[in-house]
Amino acid sequence: MTENSMFAEGQFVLGTFASNCSGGMSVTKVPERWVNSWDNNLKLARLLDDAGIDFMLPIARWIGYGGETNFHGGVLETMTWAAGLLASTQNINVFATIHTAANHPAVVAKQIATIDQISRGRIGLNIVAGWNEPEYKALGLDLPAGHEERYAYAQEWFDVIKALWTRTETFDWDGAFFKLKGILGDPRPSRKVPILNAAGSGEGRAFAVKNADFLFTPAIDLSRSGEEIAALKQQARDVGKKVGVLTFSHVVCRPTEKEAKDYLQHFGQDNADWAAVDNLVRLQFAHAHSFPHDLLALIRDRMAAGHGGFPLVGTPEQVAEGLIALHKAGFDGTTLSFVDYAEEFPYFRDTVLPMLESAGIRRPVAKAAKAA
Description:
Elements: E1 13-17, H1 38-51, E2 55-57, H2 78-87, E3 93-99, H3 105-119, E4 123-128, H4 133-138, H5 147-166, E5 171-174, E6 179-183, E7 195-198, H6 202-211, E8 214-216, H7 222-238, E9 244-253, H8 257-270, H9 274-287, H10 293-296, H11 300-306, E10 310-314, H12 316-329, E11 333-337, H13 341-351, H14 353-358, H15 365-371
Parallel strand pairs: 1-2, 1-11, 2-3, 3-4, 4-7, 7-8, 8-9, 9-10, 9-11
Antiparallel strand pairs: 5-6
């Protein structure tokens, strides 16, 4: 089986984020904002696949953030979304984002193993230990008060999945959270499943470096990011692991800098859904540690434009320079989002990707497609 491009040495991996969600990553009221229909997602997946983009990453949401648009009120479920996209593409990896509290590990293990066959080894798993209390209430669940309990549960949850993916004989499981009798995982994935986790707390980071292949973290201040990335990679080495660090970015790429900045002002300021933005920021402060809290209050504008993602705004040359700066800071890759993914991605593909190839941080498209 050919190499998975997620693990290719020297490749600054690129993906998209949240195309399964209404509005994508932009909390805006503009009429051209992303419509997360199946048809639009399939169109986007095929564009990305043909361009040699490495992966697609969804967000799992169960209720929206309110405001005029009810941002993320409409969301395609991620496991079935991934299965459908992978059946319709050739090379791209697609992640399923799964909340540990809402999904039994034995079911998830079998779903991933089944999609592994559908995709010939291109399914990934993004593990979410949980943070959004209103979602827990919507599902009739209690959010554990402490990060320790959330991640203890997530650890046993993933330990069960790993056992189902590796053991070849029927076994019992007698843990703190799961009691399983006479269980066996069949089928099992054909090759290593890329594991992703976003975590900001100490417990979360410890979970990520122990279990994940990629840790997802914001890039708010690149001078700060370099030290953070180095510390995370050293933390992984200390437990005998290698972990890649990914971030997320929002792209506004236009022929001139003025056009890009004017459009950012239009959708990300003048027509932002500020009520939804403030609900999002409030929940991040109350329950999540994905963003450093000392910086979260400073990036309200970024939350409107791209859910707090690193801004890549300007000409193709300026956008390419921003991506190269992320690479130099130590990131191993980034997701990309656009106000309208399928409409805007082709210009990025045609203008920015060749510059990244010339800079040596991306393989030429034909090679990337073969390697995936």
